[in-house]
Amino acid sequence: MDALDVARWQFGVTTVYHFLFVPLTIGLGPLVAVLQTMWLRTGDEKYLRLTKFYGKLFLINFAMGIVTGIVQEFQFGMNWSDYSRFVGDIFGAPLAIEALLAFFLESTFLGLWIFGWDRLPKRVHLATIWAAAIGSVLSAYFILAANSFMQNPVGYRIDPESGRAELTDFVAVLTNKVALITFPHTIAGAFLVAGSLIVSVSLWHVMRRGVTDETPAHRFATRFGAVVTLVATAAVLVTGDIQSKIMTQVQPMKMAAAEGLYDTESPAAFSVLTVGSLDGGREVFALKIPYLLSWLSTGDVNGEVHGINDLQAQYAAQYGPGDYAPMIPVAYWSFRLMIGFGLAAALVALLVLWAQRRGRTPSSKWLLRAGLVLPLLPLAANAFGWIFTEMGRQPWIVFGEMLTRDGVSRSVSLTEVLTSFTAFTLIYAILAVVEVRLLLTYAKRGLPPVAPPPDDDPGDRDADEDRPLAFAY
Amino acid sequence: MELSTFWFLLIAVLFTGYFVLEGFDFGVGVLLRVLGRDDRERRVLINTIGPVWDGNEVWLITAGGAMFAAFPEWYATLFSGFYLPLLLILLALIVRGVAFEYRHGRDHAGWKDRWDWAITIGSVVPAVLWGVAFANIFRGVPLTADHEYAGGLLTLLNPYGLLGGATFLAVFVTHGALFLALKTAGDIREHANRLAGRAGLVAVLLAGTFLVWSLVLRANPAAVVLAVLAAVALVAGLAANRVRREGWAFAGTATAIALTVATLFTALFPEVMPSTLDPAGTLTTANASSTPYTLTIMTWVAAIFTPIVLLYQAWTYWIFRRRLDTTHIPTH
């Protein structure tokens, strides 16, 4: 084991962990904003209580998203300084713009939303949650543009003197075709998570707590969450399909690895499940759908899909001797698990919607159980999606330009990386337990009662200095 | 002005903004257990910074991002070189950030007490370590000709670096106490006011020594003027505190922090990270910067969006301008 291995593990662990919270932040923010908008438009208290309830779950989760995000930014310089030197001219720009345009918007307006309930006019207060939600979506775009440069470098040249990548066309970086399709795919994945969480929590209240004054609100929320989940699934599938075609063009090796496809085929069959060694040798059992892989990769049922062996030979000729294939089992299984978990979530949401049709109250023990694990399914799908995207790019850190092993910090010792890897993993583990417990406590507690909102216009509120805050830490 | 100079200036501004803003919320965090004698008082203290601390921290993220974009060599050398201090800062910021949100999650004394410690330690550690880090950037560290850090953790813990750490902590505590005196009413205000006076004396002593030592290490006329103004602002702020002009007092420490950061950056320019080992290792605005093309784009983005950010952040402070005391804390 050397510093490179540990740095890679650290990147994997901190990134996957960070991305457990981010999708919920991206998805739940707009959904809370929608609920608050519905309250403002209808005056129905049910929507206000749901806004506050899911807003609280959103905030518990947001805190983790932001603190683990700082680690991501600093990690490039700490563990991957040679990578940072190589691509800083390009990669740093979207990161800085993300902070300036998105993070400031998100954090400032979220502060205004949390504490502004009785300090801001209702419409202005509603605008603050929308501003925060827009901020989180914007930040996803910029970070994905940066990531897409690593998958499909565009708009740059290599300076012959310094050997570094230099930006030549920023618009090309921002309109990288990989970024343009990864962005909607990721956002749809985020709504899948947020919708599932709402279904899960509200379904529990509908099924377990008997009929209370909260029931109509939770019945509504269950349907709302299920519809969001199903629409998000459709969006994930459509964008994922386009994405896989683009991936086949720009990173054919990643597609070949995802399929464990060793020899070039046309037409190529999609492997639903292959049991074997995945090294191209033995195949014990395989379930395949003919023509599907060709269609997924190229849009043509007879299209040619390149295999790992051909691509390896081609890259070796182009870049010199070396192994240019990612770890096939990781790519193969993460790709399948991503799709499988995502579809499972949609299935549960559909069952919930069906069980609640025309005012029925679902009573199946199995549905309740499925509902409780529901949020874990899209979270797993998201995690495996990222593992696939990043592992499928290996051995490259910037595809075709820099190998991962060349990007690591040279001045950082094994002890140092090991220390930070251990420290982050430990603290992340502890905080995960705390976070889940807190989320469960709040989720079980149910909808907060609402005091009738003050009717006075905000101009008079200063006169009411001694009233307790509507929200306080 | 060359674009790399402009970006040096902008990064100085971002770090100045970060230390002025997060400086007071670090100070409040450090004083949480000192000024807050019971849960209700502690909640008052936390709520004075509740709406803004998160936005304050984004100044750091933006400064880091701007450094990455405009001076990738500086970013790479600094972040890989100061590895362990940065790790500690990150860990501290993590526990501190979640502590604000989590401490009221359960109504249990032991639970709240543990998170209060997380806030205190999470505020002390970054305050001190940023001081150590900035002092060392200014003093210079061993860098090889290809800009790799050749020292260890102990290299950074030299007397000047440690003085930097102590100075940052003392000034932030004073700054935080003055913020509390400005933002609270009743008992807490009185305590904060008195504590600011005492902490202020320590801050004056340490900051005075630190500024003089810094100017001995390297100086130019502009830096000397800025350092003198920084000292004047600090003393004037404390004088204003004595006559209970808390707004002016807070403006005084804010100005002193801004001018101290300005002094360091001014004296450093055009170097960004001097090398004590091999002069060829010294990073400057010229050899650490991105290409003019990248800097031009970044300049446009910064020119358009920085004023907007300043406007809405200022608006936040205006919205939450009123003083808080225990009567404003709801029972749940």
TrEMBL record, chain A:
Its main location: membrane. GO terms for biological process: aerobic electron transport chain. InterPro entries: Cyt-d_ubiquinol_oxidase_su_1. It is a multi-pass membrane protein. The chain crosses the membrane at residues 20-41, 53-71, 91-115, 127-150, 187-208, 220-238, 333-354, 366-388, 417-440. Residues 450-473 are annotated as: Disordered. GO terms for cellular component: cytochrome complex; plasma membrane. This is Cytochrome ubiquinol oxidase subunit I. The lineage of its organism: Bacteria, Bacillati, Actinomycetota, Actinomycetes, Micromonosporales.
UniProtKB/TrEMBL annotation, chain B:
The chain crosses the membrane at residues 6-32, 44-68, 74-95, 115-138, 158-183, 195-216, 222-240, 247-269, 297-320. InterPro entries: Cyt-d_oxidase_su2. The keyword Iron applies. One of its GO terms (molecular function) is metal ion binding. It is found in: Cell membrane. Its main location: membrane. Keywords: Cell membrane, Electron transport, Heme, Iron, Membrane, Metal-binding, Transmembrane, Transmembrane helix, Transport. It comes from the Bacteria. It is a multi-pass membrane protein. One of its GO terms (biological process) is aerobic electron transport chain. GO terms for cellular component: cytochrome complex; plasma membrane. Belongs to the cytochrome ubiquinol oxidase subunit 2 family. This is Cytochrome c oxidase assembly protein.
